[in-house]
Amino acid sequence: MLDTDTKRRIDTARDILVGKVPDPKSQVEQITIAMIYKFMDDMDAEAEELGGKRKFFTGDYARYGWARLMSPGLGGHDLIGLYGEGIATMPQNPGIPPLFRDMFKNAYLPYRDPETLKSFLKIINEFHYDHSERLGDAFEYLLSVLGSQGDAGQFRTPRHIIDFMVEVLAPQKHETVLDPACGTAGFLISAYKHILRANTDAKGHSTLTPDEKGRLAKNFKGYDISPDMVRLSLVNLYLHGFTDPHIYEYDTLTSEERWNEYADVILANPPFMSPKGGIKPHKRFSIQAKRSEVLFVDYMAEHLTPNGRAAIIVPEGIIFQSQTAYKELRKLLVENSLVAVISLPAGCF
User: Is the N end or the C end of the chain the one with fewer CB atoms within 10 Å?
Assistant: First the structure.
């Protein structure tokens, strides 16, 4: 559960940024980058306490450490220079794993106001990395402020609909799970939590062996065309206990690179905005179409293992549109794979 202090911190951080960074998506990105920056310093401090060495802020990168940013003697413009340089150069830091490099890919500070940055970092300073579920809940709350519709026709899926779809498919601990348009990884996290709950005894203790836990984390995979969404997915999964999340910047409809990869469970709410003139997919789809909803459903139907199952959110046009591609898709689904159509009331998204 999200505690009131965490909610207040996130709301305050957004309030501080809103004058300089009005777009909610950019606010989420700035808070995400700052939180991970702070958490890297927390992990360094924890390593030192346990007798180990710092690995994130060492060598040339020691100057960017969090304590230096929080130093009362550091002037406002020096703070902007130091923090801006720190986040921009972090992908080149030899001491950090590839996951963290990916999180900082193309990161930058979009404003140059010292007072805004000081107030903002002061609030971020109240967050601490503690390996608990609370941080995951906090990040889920932060992601919930993203607008209802994204630039490419992505719609944020309400949590109760995600959880319902996962319950229906009931993914198992040995199964591979894929979201080929993963956004912020909501479906993957819900599926992961479902498996954890299903493998818990009456006292609330996990019945998964260490080997099963290790395999479980490797079984989850997501693709997204947007580098910003990939970054948010990586952070979201990391804060939910995935030390090495498998999220790839990938165009599911036009790239063939991952065509031969299959999954036991596929969950998705893919974007349904087709550009003017349609999408130009590669030739391996069963149905020749230029509409994203047709192509995504075809992709998922074709990428299930023999005993696999999928739950996909689609626009109602899939059911009644009369163009050839839609008819061919319906035929494919009804003859080979369709179990049920669940109609959602207007205004769900």
Answer: N
